[in-house]
Design a protein that fits this description.
Blueprint lengths: L3 H31 L4 H22 L6 H4 L2 H19 L6 H25 L4 H22 L5 H4 L5 H16 L4 H22 L9
Subcellular location: Cell membrane
Main location: membrane
Membrane topology: Multi-pass membrane protein
Length: about 210
């Protein structure tokens, strides 16, 4: 029987996929609540945010069944999270804000960028393709979230580094794999690096240049 450390080394990518799902589900819920959607709308937006990026990754890598269909328990977990989070926000009289959405979104970005890159590397794709898969896993759910709530996707429009940070974090995972680190350790370091970089970008106001007509 494997001890906990052994389990982590083998299933670490799954752990970070779970963290990403939970974080993005919460960010989608906050954004949907901010837009004053009804309960069905909130759960739908939350699900798109949590599952959208991984679904696109699975389509492009020809992985079947999709990760959330293979592990359908996470659909029920997502619904439960939505209901509990809504109850918590109402009882605590918390106001959903765009800024509040950014923090779980940063966690999801790091977990999915690193985990998506590692999963693609495990499928023996070239490094650049693995990094692109990590970026798509990390950003596409948020793109769907913003489209559904009738906004230009923040990943493309707010000028605070987002996709660039996911891209950088993916290369960290690739580099650590070339150093022959265990996949879980590579994903953990890549995820933490990406999360910290995104938080710094938010706190310090880092901005990408905008097109000037």
């Amino acid at each position: 029987m494997l001890d906990f450390t052994g389990w982590l080394l083998i299933n670490g990518t799954v752990l970070f996929e779970v963290i990403g799902i939970l974080a993005f589900a919460l960010s989608g819920l906050i954004e949907a609540a901010r837009k004053k959607l009804d309960l069905v709308g909130m759960i739908t937006v939350s699900g798109l945010t949590a599952f959208g990026g991984g679904t696109l990754r699975d389509i492009l890598l020809d992985r079947r069944p999709f990760f959330w269909i293979e592990n359908s328990t996470w659909v029920w977990v997502l619904i439960g999270i939505c209901l509990l989070a809504l109850a918590f926000m109402r009882t605590r009289h918390l106001e959903p804000t765009g800024q509040a959405m950014q923090w779980p979104d940063a966690v999801g970005l790091g977990a999915f960028a690193a985990g998506g890159t590692q999963l693609a590397l495990d499928g023996q794709v070239p490094a650049i393709i693995a990094v692109i898969m990590g970026v798509l896993t990390a950003i596409f759910g948020g793109v769907l979230r913003d489209i559904v709530v009738n906004e230009i996707p923040k990943a493309f429009s707010d000028h605070i580094p987002y996709s660039v940070i996911a891209f950088t974090g993916g290369w960290v995972v690739v580099g650590l794999n070339y150093l022959a680190l265990e996949p879980f350790i590579a994903v953990a370091i890549g995820a933490i690096f990406t999360i910290v970089l995104r938080v710094l970008a938010l706190l310090l106001g880092w901005r990408l240049p905008a097109w000037k007509a």
